[in-house]
Design goal:
The structure holds two protein chains of two kinds.
Chain A (H helix, E strand, L loop, with lengths): L19 H11 L4 E6 L2 E7 L16 E4 L2 E7 L1 H22 L5 H14 L11 E9 L2 E7 L5 E3 L2 E4 L3 H11 L6 H15 L9 E7 L5 E2 L2 H11 L1
Helix pairs in contact in A: 2-3, 4-5, 5-6
Chain B lengths: L22 H12 L3 E6 L3 E7 L15 E3 L5 E6 L1 H22 L5 H17 L8 E9 L3 E7 L5 E3 L2 E5 L2 H12 L7 H16 L8 E7 L6 E2 L2 H14 L1
Antiparallel strand pairs in B: 1-2, 1-8, 2-9, 3-4, 4-5, 5-6, 6-7, 9-10
The chains are: A alpha+beta, B alpha+beta.
Chain lengths: ~240, ~250
């Protein structure tokens, strides 16, 4: 990776033992639009703000929430271009697993491999860390799961989490509202309410994206019309 | 050998600054503006066009060799705003991608996929220290089989979006303000309206009336999906129509 002239790591320890490039990468994440995920008893929901820089942008051309396999979806906060690299690599890793074992990759394994890629970029020569945190959601033989992966490559499984701007408010809100026996429909409503908390302007089906996966194990991104329906229910 | 991370090199190569920014990428955007020309793209109901200034800096230059409009394939046009040499590199890569796609898959590369590939390459330059980001903003136009007329823009940061209308270059913000007003009510622009909106936007923000040789216009239309650069006569017709309208 990288040219031989840059075969040294750009992410090096500071005298106090910190890896400052990773901390700065986390700042880039913290400046990104809010994303969140909630694990319910029978599914997972992930959602994000989709604030566009101008009304001239065709919002239908942008898909922040992507599927990595038919039963795993991902959303990011931070630098969009960096997330595309991770989406592409994860999809290939999932496919490689599928070819080898003739089985869909379990979410925890895909998360592990994606996180390993992110860690590589904090240690390899001539590259910088990724400026994104990912929320990966899926439903496999271990049930519904939600993982968060950070620029450092560390990952945890969460019941509910938020990344990007406004995380502390969002997490406080989620802590209050979360219950272990929550069902997917409740989780979707809670996700919308959490996004609404920090939302500047009028929330609509065009400026948020929601992805869900239920017991049928098929990840899907809701259409703007479906999002509008949920928004109406929340009112 | 230079060591990055906190030693002040965050302005020299693409590593994070303490605020979590990439200065080299931001400087690349400034290089696009410094090129001194403005470009505008507009998407209509069944056509897309882009327009850019044609500034020939020296009278001795062969005007026909000065262009910012390129055909990536027969059906996709690319307008490169910014550093000329970087633009050539980007176009060579785009043409290569398009040709490989056609060879491997047997059908023409869709505009949005080509935009993605260009943007992905730009992203690599923002993450690897050995190559700087390109000082080019690329607009792509084409007619998609399923989605109809498409206008995409790729920037040095590796972002790419589909647009109803957009601009790049020195007067980018003024142009965007102008276009937002025009596009606000979602007008269904005909071919002539699309071209004339783009040209009059450029005239309005630069506060000058153009001669046909001072601008370049590229179009794709639903019935005739090949990318075409308008001739001076055709540009003249549109300029006349605009001035008669006002």
């Amino acid at each position: 990776m990288g040219d031989s002239q840059y075969s040294f790591s750009l992410t090096t320890f500071s005298p106090s033992g910190k890896l400052v490039q990773i901390e700065y990468a986390l700042m880039a994440v913290g400046a990104g639009q809010t994303s969140l995920g909630i694990k319910a008893s029978n599914g997972v929901v992930i959602a994000t703000e989709k604030k566009l820089p101008s009304i001239l942008v065709d919002e239908a051309s942008i898909n922040k929430i992507q599927s990595l396999t038919p039963n795993i979806g991902v959303v990011y906060s931070g630098m969009g271009p960096d997330s595309r690299v991770l989406v592409r690599k994860s999809r290939k890793q999932a496919q490689t697993y599928q070819r080898l074992y003739q089985e869909p990759i379990p979410l925890s394994q895909l998360v592990r491999e994606t996180a390993a890629v992110m860690q590589e970029f904090t240690q390899s020569g001539g590259v910088r860390p990724f400026g994104v945190s990912l929320l990966m959601a899926g439903f496999d033989d271990n049930g519904p799961q939600l993982y968060q992966v950070d620029p450092s490559g560390s990952y945890f499984s969460w019941k509910a989490s938020a990344i990007g701007k406004n995380v502390s408010n969002a997490k406080t809100f989620l802590e209050k509202r979360y219950s272990d026996d929550m069902e997917l429909e409740d989780a979707i409503h809670t996700a919308i309410l959490t996004l609404k908390e920090g939302f500047e302007g009028q929330i609509s089906g065009k400026n948020i994206e929601i992805g869900i996966i239920d017991e049928k194990r098929v990840f899907k991104v809701l259409t703007p019309a479906e999002v509008e329906d949920y928004l109406a229910e929340v009112e | 050998m230079s060591r990055g991370s906190g030693a002040g090199y965050d302005r020299h190569i693409t590593i994070f600054s303490p605020e979590g920014r990439l200065y080299q990428v931001e400087y690349a955007f400034k290089a696009v503006k410094a090129a001194g020309i403005t470009s505008i793209g507009v998407r209509g109901k069944d056509s897309v066009c882009f327009v850019t200034q044609k500034k020939v800096p020296d009278k001795l230059l062969d005007q026909t060799s000065v262009t910012h409009l390129f055909a990536v394939t027969k059906f996709i046009g690319l307008l490169a705003t910014g550093m000329t040499a970087d633009a050539k590199s980007l176009i060579a890569h785009a043409r290569n991608e398009a040709a490989n796609f056609k060879f491997d898959l047997g059908y023409e590369i869709p505009v949005d996929y080509l935009a993605k590939r260009i943007a992905d390459k730009s992203q690599v330059y923002t993450q690897h220290a050995y190559m700087r980001p390109l000082g080019v903003s690329a607009m792509l136009i084409g007619i998609d089989d399923e989605q109809g007329p498409q206008l995409y823009k790729c920037d040095p940061a590796g972002h790419y979006f589909g647009y109803k209308a957009t601009s790049s270059g020195s007067k980018e913000q003024e142009a965007v303000n102008f276009l937002e007003k025009k596009i606000k009510n979602n007008p269904q622009l005909s071919y002539d309206e699309t071209v004339q909106t783009a040209i009059s936007a450029l005239q309005s923000i630069l506060l000058e009336d153009f001669k046909p040789t001072e601008i370049e216009v590229g179009v794709v239309r639903a019935g005739k999906p090949e990318f075409r650069v308008l001739s001076t006569e055709e540009i003249d017709e549109h300029l006349t129509a605009i001035s008669e309208r006002d």
